[in-house]
Design goal:
The complex is a heterodimer of chains A (225) and B (336). Chain A has 225 residues and is α+β, with helices and mostly antiparallel strands. Chain A has helices spanning 2-16, 110-113, 188-195, 208-218, and strands at 21-32, 35-36, 49-64, 68-71, 76-80, 88-94, 101-106, 137-144, 154-160, 170-175, 181-187, 202-203, 221-223. Chain A has one domain. The chains are: A alpha+beta (225), B mainly alpha (336).
Amino acid sequence: MKSSLVILFTAISLMLSAQSLRSISVSFIPVYKGELFELNDEVDNYDITISKLKFYLSNIGLSSSDKGDWIEKDSYHLLDFDEPKGMTIMLQIPENLAANSLNFNLGVDSLTNVSGAMSGDLDPMHGMYWAWQSGYINFKIEGKSDKCPGRKNKFQFHLGGFLAPFNAMQKVSLPIIIKDEIYVVFDIGELIESVDVSKVYEIMSPKAKAVSMAQEAASLFKIVE
Amino acid sequence: MIKWLVSLLGLFVVLVGFLLTETIDLEYPNHFPEPVYDFSNNKLTEQKVKLGKALFYDPILSLDGSISCASCHSPYNAFAHTDHDLSHGIDDKIGIRNAPPLFNLAWQNLFMWDGAINHLDMQALAPITSPSEMGDSLLNVISKLESSNKYRTLFDEAFGDSTITGQRLLLSISQFQLTLVSGNSKYDKIREGLDTFSTQEKKGYDIFIASCSSCHSEPLFTNGDFASNGLEIDSTLMDYGRGSITKIKSDSLLFKIPSLRNLAYTKPYMHDGRFEKLREVLNHYTDDVVNYGRENSSSRLEKNLKLSNNDKSDILSFLKTLNDQDFVFNKKHRER
């Protein structure tokens, strides 16, 4: 009965609070050494093919130094380069919000990692959860390159881990001017070069190398002016 | 105006739906502590337990439809796999560890012999996707369930619509497993003042409290921790237990401390099922403890325990009071 009342109350308050909100989109554009690329096609001028690119963004917020923060509620987004519109997040923000930075976590926080089965983008059916050892995969990139000595020249980087000292989640903060459409690029080529797939081509569990690669990934997000 | 009426009607339907699915409370003995499982995120209902039970007994969860959870966790063996040292999977594959019994899971924080799983809800994912167990993927299992009328109905009854998600599947399997409470052994009846120990059982109990209960603590007969049990590593398995999960050197060769309830139904014993008889386990603890250079570590079994043969007989007599026949023969937990 209690839960029914809560629902009723929430429904009514939602109707009343439908006040002035503004819808903005934040689109993430992966590039390879500055050039656009497609999944499963060899990147022009580079001996490399990316076959999978999925990652979690969480706790998305906008902030300004003097007016405090706005943080999206239940903010967990799985971005998947293989899905149309899979790289765009819609945000409903207060109409007159003044902010000069876009903040998010690359990955999933540790509390969520220990809280059992989740729904929506966090549902483990999306293949971004380690079955053999509890924990979300924050960032997944797979592909192949002739330089890579792994089986069928494949590399697989599954970056995750939520326990110290291998907590792989990264905070990202980018300077922005609020507008209806915000574009963020990140250069996967820089990430792949930072590990050198001729030497390191498989990271699939929480470890120091996963943390350092996640740090590198987090540093690559750039606002398109 | 009509829009408002429609949405009010919708709300009414939702309200009635909530009232029809009564939540049920987990029943457990008074001398048990509060469960650690957070039921507020997964309130028990008869419909969800029923769905979880159907999934638990259904080989549809495995890639080739040959293995169910119950294949290695049989209700007749307190949900363990008697006579099998290591777990079995599809294509006659053999795992690396003994399938543990399943009961009193609402009081466990970490799962698997190495504690790799941090929540009961996520545990089922491991056997479903392990190549040497059920060898399937969650997405594929969901699509198989979606094409089954039986499961669309069961999900509808449990969740109010027939949508099948990973979360719903996992929460339901948890629900059935949470109802597997073993708390009606002779020991429990003694705790409730309904029975008494025999002279030998009492002697065994006293020795047990002095020598074994720091790890196998009452009333669940495990403290939920990880420990070295002094076993020599099996060179065919090279299983380092907890250490391979935490990557902490001092965790190497630590394994979860199992409950000692229902031992009569759950042989063979230890994480690799190497001992057939309980007396072999006790003999190991008095004669063969290997400490791999651990000194002053958190492990309590750094050297052999001092127990006479009579002591061992008394302990074994006490351990029999932890067998819970009512649990093992409870028809409610069976397939049908």
